[in-house]
Design goal:
heterotrimer, A mainly alpha (about 325), B alpha/beta (about 425), C mainly alpha (about 280), A: about 325 residues, mainly alpha, two-stranded antiparallel ribbon, flat, B: about 425 residues, alpha/beta, six-stranded mixed β-sheet, three-stranded antiparallel β-sheet, 13 strands, about 45% helix, globular
Chain lengths: ~325, ~425, ~280
């Protein structure tokens, strides 16, 4: 594949001569690989240091202080973390975030794989299909979530209307009312949103598997399922891993969906760490505590990612 | 990268262009922040968007031009999103010492230190307009000094479908909580359940759950705000009551309802009663006239210890960080002057009810008879912190929905004793 | 017989699942469209079919365009997304290129540091970020979000681009250097132009994240004229406790149109870019 890429891109580069450069001591210095690298790296690193580094260190710093809005910052060491360790809502949010991320990611990966396999065939409206099926991912989350509020309405919502009118259930479900259903509803919306991202990315990966590999496998007598397991899946693994990692990170940090759909309720059953951190800092004005919740997200996410990589590498 | 400093006129040009064309054509305008000027020619006033559009419009179309004419100062009216994002923005402003000059200072207990003393305004207004309701002083007065000037109360009452209540044989709105439950059971049996909000909202849940507790003699904290008063036998009775109400009289969904959900459920004919401001009636009158005719308002039922309502205060405060707090104070004094204040209140159809006794007999109360009951809210209304001081710790309890979740946890399976114990532990931890 | 088999296979293997995906992906949009075209009276009618419209009306679209700053918000959102994406691509390239193609001391440590930045949640940053923006006096300006969005985008873009840059053979660069080019020229004239699909792919991903961002916009942009679509729509179409559903849905649909159009042009590059970058990465 690499060779094919080269060949198509190389022709434009034949025999070009460049204007001779004026070589001075400075120029020689800059041309050294390490100096050049660091020069190029400097602007982005400075930017990140200011806009990412400073807030990050300040955020970490805050989590070790008791800091209420307009109040002074008093050092409390691990006090905030101790408070959180004894806070049932905190632990609920941790559990919710893990459940939410785990379930949604698995559903998105499977659904995305399915979507990619289907789309990998030849049919007429392929281009427009790709664009249409990406729509859930493109539309700003807040806007589609507002629509989902209505879709989940117990009386007029699409789901319950379909369920009741088709005779499957008598009154439909309380999608946003019961704690279990609320979490399921939130997972559904996130899956709906993210599935196309998985689908299109895995499709890209599928399209790079050389046809010869499939052909030789068929000649060797492999059936469709065997081919899938031994040819397709292994080649797809890198793509799936990358896309899944991105998705796990973004889903773990997700804020908007729950903020708009349930506000964390009912009874904190959908409170995620991100929404809890927000409501502590900006709602209750306890910024140190809120930062502590946010900081706690990092090790939990790290653990999830380690588990993910380990699980995938196992195969 | 240097950015050109544009003057205010440059910004006004931008606003005109941007109204029609895509933002790309106006790249210079929004890049520049407000210049700090020696004498302010603009005062920024932030308020959450009002349900009654006319109220905001009166402010924008009548008051702002009038002030401009009188003093040459333009008021920049920043409408903040409803639904809980006003407080984070206010917190952000206070922390960064930049933003609005004065605002509807929601949850002011979080940042009272950042507000200037407005006692002179409040005392003058109180004197000229009949005196303040005592209850609101618990919010606006801190250590003897007024930190905010109360503008009005958003009344919350029981909103119900008179036609469905009549059909079920309930001719008068239930007077006691027990009658309220019985009526609900009858109505749910007929397919018209109640929808009592119990989710993570800020008004429609507090406006009936706290009065329920108060009418049974239960408060969250004691008067000094030092001891937790929630653990009492009456609390268990209230929790059991809510469990029964939820299971036997309410729609299942309402346990997760934020403030707008009961409006939607009512307007789509799914519930027969909820606790709300009179926005539901207004929406119905406008969009569903037939329903509008059969909506009525009822007072909160009474318990053994009386009848209570919850206050939803609108107060205005001036930020100390502003370039010219005195100018902001002058403006605040001006809008509270009866000449400006009365027409403004009238434009809101008494949705915003002043905390001043001069308005007790205000003729506007009689325009729509179904609005008149909201007057009673001022008489029997208490702040959610009652009887304790409205301070930061109280704010933490409100914003973490500790008492609300005590009820919802019980409704979803947690044993009553456990739910109460957990709530008490959390409150104790917050108050320290 | 063979013909029948393939026809059935195609039906089950392609058309049925494809239609399923179409329905699942698009049904909320049909509902959004239906709602935006119904009058309030029909909308609140409990007996009405959610998807059918009896008296279609453009009243919500008209009031959205006339009574709110919707078009301004769309313009702001596009401007912010384009600028933030541009800044992020520039910085991302400068970050990814040396890490992907050069050897220098400190490279592994730097790579790990960059990787770790993906794990920093916005939830930890928003309080200090608000402080920073306040100090720089950028509150209520589009610059506030144009400068803060890259902090979310650069880590991901750098990662995507690194994978893509690695696929360009070293020989090309070496050849250019032999021919007398400076490293800078080799980078900008030779290698980077070959990576256009990668840039487009990363750019689209960044653009999507940028125009979807909510938290920073919520905290920094409170004046109506500087708002972006997500917070403008949610902020001003919800008054008190009333959702203006019809206008909200109209706004949601109209707000998606420009982005969907852009996507339809670029989606094939997006796929091509991911192909090389992700697979090799």
């Amino acid at each position: 594949m690499g060779r094919a890429v080269e060949a198509s891109r190389a022709p434009a580069l034949e025999a070009r001569t460049y204007r001779p450069l004026r070589f001075g001591r400075l120029r020689e210095l800059v041309e050294r690989e390490s100096v050049f690298s660091w020069l190029v790296l400097t602007p982005p690193l400075l930017f990140l240091l200011l806009f990412l580094g400073y807030p990050f260190f300040y955020g970490v710093y805050l989590s070790f202080f008791r800091r209420e809005v307009t109040g002074p910052a008093t050092f409390v060491g691990f006090g905030n973390f101790v408070t959180l360790a004894n806070d049932p809502i905190f632990w609920q949010s941790v559990g919710n975030t893990v459940k939410f991320t785990g379930a949604a990611t698995i559903l998105k990966a499977i659904g995305g794989l399915g979507m990619a396999l289907v789309m990998n065939q030849n049919f007429k409206f392929k281009a427009i299909t790709r664009a249409m099926l990406l729509l859930p991912f493109i539309v700003p989350t807040v806007l589609s979530t507002v629509a989902w509020q209505w879709i989940y309405d117990p009386g007029l919502g699409l789901f319950n209307r379909l369920l009741v009118e088709s005779g499957l259930t008598k009154t439909g479900f309380s999608w946003l009312g019961s704690p279990t259903m609320a979490m399921i509803s939130v997972i559904i919306v996130n899956t709906w949103r993210g599935l196309p991202f998985f689908g299109i990315s895995i499709l890209a990966g599928l399209q790079t598997i050389p046809v010869e590999q499939h052909e030789s496998a068929t000649i060797d007598g492999a059936g469709t399922w065997d081919r899938f397991r031994h040819v397709t899946l292994p080649s797809l693994l890198p793509v799936i891993l990358i896309v899944t990692t991105f998705s796990v990170i973004l889903t773990f940090f997700d804020f908007q969906l729950v903020y708009v759909l349930t506000g964390g309720g009912p009874a904190n059953s959908t409170h995620l760490m991100a929404t809890y951190a927000y409501s502590l800092s900006m709602g209750a004005g306890q910024m140190g505590l809120g930062s502590a919740v946010a900081l706690s997200m990092v090790p939990v996410l790290g653990l999830l990612l380690v588990l993910l990589t380990w699980y995938v590498r196992k195969d | 990268m240097t950015r050109p400093e544009t003057s205010r006129t440059g910004r006004r040009e931008f606003l005109k262009i941007a109204a029609g064309a895509a933002g790309a054509a106006a790249a210079t305008g929004p890049w520049i922040s407000r210049n700090a000027q020696a004498k302010p020619t603009t005062i920024v006033f932030a308020r959450e968007s009002s349900y009654v559009k006319n109220f905001d419009e009166h402010f924008q179309k009548v008051l702002i031009p009038a002030y401009l004419k009188a003093t040459g100062i333009k008021i920049d009216y920043q409408i903040q999103a409803a639904g809980g994002s006003a407080v984070p923005q206010l917190v952000s402003m206070v922390e960064n010492k930049s933003g609005a000059d004065l605002a509807w200072v929601q949850q002011e207990w979080l940042y009272r230190d950042a507000l200037v003393d407005v006692s002179d305004i409040a005392e003058a207004v109180g004197k000229e307009q009949g005196g303040w309701y005592d209850e609101i002083k618990l919010l606006s007065v801190d250590n003897g000094k007024w930190k905010s000037v109360p503008q009005a109360n958003i009344g919350q009452l029981m909103v119900y479908r008179k036609d469905w209540f009549d059909e079920a044989g309930i001719k008068q709105f239930p007077d006691t909580w027990d009658e309220f439950l019985e009526a609900g059971i009858k109505l749910k049996a007929k397919g018209h359940p109640y929808g009592m909000s119990m989710g993570h909202g800020f008004a429609d849940n507090y406006s009936w759950l706290y009065p329920l507790l108060w009418s049974h003699g239960v408060t969250v904290m004691d008067k000094a705000g030092k001891k937790v008063a929630l653990d009492s036998s009456e609390t268990a009775k209230c929790v059991e009551y809510v469990k029964r109400l939820y299971k036997e009289a309410c729609i299942e969904d309402c346990i997760g309802w934020l403030d707008p959900h009961n409006n939607k459920a009512f307007l789509t004919s799914q519930i027969s009663c909820t606790n709300n401001a009179y926005s539901i009636m207004v929406s119905a009158k406008r969009d569903l006239p037939d329903m509008g005719k059969v909506i009525e308002h009822g007072l909160n039922p009474k318990g053994p210890h009386g009848r209570f309502h919850a206050l939803v205060p609108v107060t205005h405060g001036v930020f100390a960080y502003g370039p010219d707090p005195q100018a902001a104070k002058d403006f605040l004094r001006w809008i509270m002057d009866p000449k400006q204040y009365r027409p403004w209140i009238s434009s809101g159809d008494m949705y915003f009810a002043p905390y001043l006794h001069a308005f007790d007999k205000y003729p506007d109360w009689d325009i729509e008879p179904r609005v008149k009951p909201f007057q009673k809210v001022l008489e029997t209304g208490k702040l959610t912190s009652w009887p304790a001081p409205a301070n930061r710790a109280h704010g933490a309890v409100i914003n973490r929905w500790i008492v609300i979740d005590m009820f919802t946890k019980a409704c979803t399976g947690t044993p009553t004793k456990t739910a109460i114990a957990e709530a008490v532990t959390q409150i104790k931890q917050i108050y320290g | 017989m063979v013909g029948e088999l393939t026809w059935r296979k195609r039906l089950l293997g392609l058309w049925v699942p494809l239609s399923l995906f179409y329905v699942v992906a698009l049904f909320p949009f049909t509902w959004m469209a239906a709602t935006s075209l119904k009058t309030n009276a029909e909308l609140y009618d409990p007996k009405a079919n959610p998807l059918s419209i009896h008296h279609p009306s453009l009243v919500h679209y008209i009031s959205l365009l006339q009574e709110t700053n919707f078009l301004t918000w769309v313009g702001n959102t596009m401007l912010v997304a384009v600028v933030a994406t541009g800044i992020s691509l520039l910085l991302g390239t400068m970050l990814a290129y040396p890490l992907a193609r050069m050897r220098f001391r400190g490279a592994p440590l730097l790579a790990i540091t960059v990787a770790v930045t993906y794990l920093v949640p916005q939830s930890l940053l928003f309080v200090p970020m608000a402080d920073l923006i306040g100090r720089l006096k950028l509150g209520n300006t589009l610059s506030a979000v144009m400068l803060t969005y890259p902090t979310l985008l650069v880590p991901f873009i750098a990662w995507l681009l690194m994978g893509y840059f690695k696929t360009v053979p070293k020989e090309l660069e070496e050849q250019a250097l032999i021919d007398g080019a400076s490293r800078w020229r080799a980078m900008t004239r030779v290698i980077l132009p070959l990576c256009m699909p990668g840039f487009i792919s990363a750019g689209i991903f960044a653009f999507t994240l940028a125009q979807n961002e909510f938290l920073y916009a919520l905290l920094f942009l409170s004046r109506s004229e500087v708002r972006t679509v997500p917070i403008g729509v949610v902020g001003e179409l919800i008054r008190g406790d009333a959702f203006y559903w019809g206008q909200l849905m109209a706004g949601a649909l109209l707000g998606s149109v420009p982005v969907a159009l852009i996507y339809s042009f670029f989606v094939k590059y997006y796929v091509a870019g991911l192909t090389a970058g992700a697979v090799k990465g």
